[in-house]
Amino acid sequence: MTHELAAFLRTRRERLSPADLALRTGGRSRRTPGLRREEVAELAGVSVDYVVRLEQGRGLRPSAEVLDALARALLLDDDERAYLFDLARQRPTARRRAAEAIPASLSRLVHDLSPLPCLLVSQRCDILAWNDEMAALMLDFDLLPEEWHNTLRLCVLHPGYRDFWPDRELIIRQCIADLRAAWAARPDEALDALIDELTSQSAEFARLWAARDVKVNGHGRKRLRHPVAGPLSVDFQVLNPLDDPDRRLVIYRAADPASQAALDSVVQARAAHRTTTAAGHPDAAPDGARGR
């Protein structure tokens, strides 16, 4: 994480200007954007050499007090500050759980939240469980190979999602900003592998990952372009079980009456299709929450 800490500090310094902090420039011109290291050092109360060594990734382990001073000097918001502390291993991290089956209570909750579309995901965006409403709104996860059971991989690489999000870059940018916070808080080899895969296969992902935006997105609104129902908007809410920080419930609600009508139509069409399929195949799985 030393390299990432260095890069993060550089990008946060370069995005600021003296005017952001009411600094006097003395009329000197600037050949590069952002604050000078000298200015950051003065604002944080550390030496210029210390800032240089941090930005060069030369093995320093800054204390919580120094990190707090740097966060103030660089005008970091709450999510960015937490990310900085995580990179420096100065924030207590939640206890990691060993890989295990999804608790039955969470699987039932995904089902019980119907008719609201809902899915359960891991910190690295793996799709662990979903209900029929979510499958109708997104893709039929039952029909996808397991390697596609990842929301970020779907969004970035799956051809079916190329036109699904009208605000595609914004959606990917927000997902990456959220993923960065999880990546720093709870290092994970599988997550590192996913990031390497997406960086190598998508120039778009590589560019947005390199921006080092950090933002935990607990709620918001998304616009969709459903292949059958057409345009609709959903409000989303993300819930995190207190005893299982590596898993998240993502719940969608239609944002307006027209979107609700569109959602109802795709859910009804899926239910009718499943009823027809089940009639022809008595051993077909019943409706409800799916998962690994």
Can you walk me through this structure?
The protein has 292 residues and is an alpha+beta fold. The chain has two domains: 2-87, lambda repressor-like DNA-binding domains (434 Repressor (Amino-terminal Domain)), CATH 1.10.260; 104-291, Beta-Lactamase (2-Layer Sandwich). 46% of the residues lie in helices and 13% in strands. The protein is built from twelve helices and six strands. It has helices spanning 2-14, 37-44, 48-55, 64-73, 78-87, 104-112, 132-137, 151-157, 168-185, 189-201, 203-210, 257-280, and strands spanning 118-122, 127-130, 219-226, 230-239, 247-254, 290-291. The protein has a six-stranded antiparallel β-sheet with strand order 3-4-5-1-2-6. α2 crosses α4. The longest helix has 24 residues, at 257-280.
